[in-house]
Each structure stands twice: as C-alpha cells, then as structure tokens.
Amino acid sequence: MSGSNHISRRDFIKVTTGAIGGFIAGVLGIPSIAYMISPALREDKAGKPMPIGKLEDIPIGTPHPFSFTITKVNGWERTAASYGGFILRKSEDPNDILVLSSRCTHLSCRVNWNETAGAFLCPCHDAKFSKEGEVLDGPPPEPLGHFTHEVDAEGYITIIPVEQKAG
Ligand code: FES
C-alpha cells in the first residue's frame, strides 16, 4: 500500500546492511587508528626527573651504584638504553651528595667502584678515577660526568637523567 509507514524488504535490507557495516567499521577502525597514531603521542622520558634511591639506604663515604633505563620513542621506532652511575654521600648532610655517571670519559666504557683500590676503575684502558670522579690515571681527558639531583623531604633522591660535564 503506497503512502503507508511500512518499509519495503529492499529498504530494510539496505538499512540493516548499512548499520552492520558501520558497526564493523567502528569496531575495527577506531582501535586501528588509535594503534597507528599512539606512538606519535607517547612521551619521551629523557630529561624528566627520575627516582634513583632513598638517602637512608645509601652508606656514607662509599659510592653506591644505581641504574635506569630510558626509552626513546621516535614515531614507531622505540629504543631503550640503560645508564648507570654512583651516588656518593659525603656526610650526614642530605645535600652533601654527588651523583656521578659511570660512563668513562675516554671511550664510554662503564667504570666500576673498586673498594680495595679506593677508586673507580675502567676495564677498557685501565683508567682510574677518584671517589669524586677526578682522573687519577689513564687516558680519560676529563673527570666523570654527573647528574643534577634533588633530595625531597622524605629523603628520596631524583635525578635529571641528562649527564652533565664535570666542572
Ligand atoms: S674507555 Fe675508559 S679508559 Fe678507555
């Protein structure tokens, strides 16, 4: 009957097919688009404060190792690099600390604290650095780098994970 509110079978199939197609496109399409653009929206942690320990856990007078990983996201490329260093508490004063990098300033090998030698030793070309990072022996052109740090009211130490040159 023309002029009635009934829809034809053909129109019903068109509307139903369109609705199902739209639903499938939404279910599959939205997550796909989110997946494709999300790497570009992720933040890079380099340069942001990073916790490395609590003051009460660090012995006074002996370099204490710490390490952290920075993941850099460049579009869809993600690279993780690990870094390390040593916290030297020089006295009871919470502000009297030095946060040294473990990267040798010669060719970037990792130095290790050697209690017997009382120095940081580099395994690559036998360099020796003092407890405070000064060059004592070997080819390094400059002292160990350090990290800018802060100690909060509860004694948590955070660093800005960007190595600074000594001096
Ligand atoms: S890399 Fe450390 S002495 Fe050469």
Q: Which spans have pLDDT < 50 for at least 5 consecutive residues?
A: none
What's the helical proportion of residues?
Answer: 10-25%
CATH architecture classification name of the largest domain: 3-layer Sandwich
Bound compounds, each kind once, are:
FE2/S2 (inorganic) cluster
At the first level of CATH, the class of the largest domain is Mainly Beta
Q: Largest beta sheet: what is the strand line-up?
A: 5-6-7-8
Q: By CATH's scheme, which homologous superfamily of the largest domain applies?
A: Rieske [2Fe-2S] iron-sulphur domain
Separate helix tally: 1
What is the terminal separation in angstroms?
94 Å
Q: Give the C-alpha Rg.
A: 29 Å
- The number of E-state strands comes to 10
Do you know the CATH topology of the largest domain? Rieske Iron-sulfur Protein
Outline of this structure?
The protein has 1 helix and 10 strands. The chain is an alpha+beta fold and 167 residues long.
What does this structure look like?
This protein folds into 2 domains: 1-41; 50-159, Rieske Iron-sulfur Protein (3-layer Sandwich). It is built from 1 helix and 10 strands; from the N terminus they run H-E-E-E-E-E-E-E-E-E-E. The protein has one helix spanning 9-41; strands spanning 50-54, 64-74, 77-89, 97-101, 112-114, 119-121, 128-129, 135-137, 149-151, 156-159. The chain has a 4-stranded antiparallel beta sheet, with no helix packed on it. The longest helix is centred in the N-terminal third of the chain and has 33 residues, at 9-41. The mean pLDDT is 88. The structure holds FE2/S2 (inorganic) cluster.
